[in-house]
Amino acid sequence: MRDALRRILKEDWIVVFGSGIALGYMLLTLGEAVGAVVVTGLESQSVEQLFASDASPLSFAVGDHVIELGGIVRSLGQLGVVLLVVAFAVSRLQRAPDAEP
């Protein structure tokens, strides 16, 4: 299993391509979360509806508008995990010897 992983990590284009797909998808998810915050922030809701519903702990009211930051926090956490995995893969790629078996 380790040998197969080493062979895959030696292929630079696979690591770059996979990292690009993962980072692109996470940035898309973060953009959707920011869009959801903007859309829900523009809708007018009463504070009673906020407390009567299953609102997340990251929801708060500003006047007649409800701001929910749960999606952004979730997306930022996922983006952080992806960045850690990409950093790990890149560091392993840089530490790998250049000699071919």
Describe this protein's structure.
There is one protein chain. With 101 residues, the protein is mostly helical. It has one domain. The chain contains 4 helices and 2 strands. The longest helix has 31 residues. 3% of the residues are buried. The mean pLDDT is 80.
The proportion of strand residues reads 5-15%
Total helical segments: 4
Arrangement of strands in the largest sheet: 1-2
Query: What is the helix content?
Result: over 70%
List the helices and strands and how they pair.
Blueprint: H1 2-10, H2 12-42, H3 47-52, E1 59-62, E2 65-68, H4 70-95
Antiparallel strand pairs: 1-2
Primary descriptors:
two-stranded antiparallel sheet, single chain, 71% helix, 101 residues, mainly alpha
Kindly summarize this structure in a few lines:
The chain has four helices and two strands.
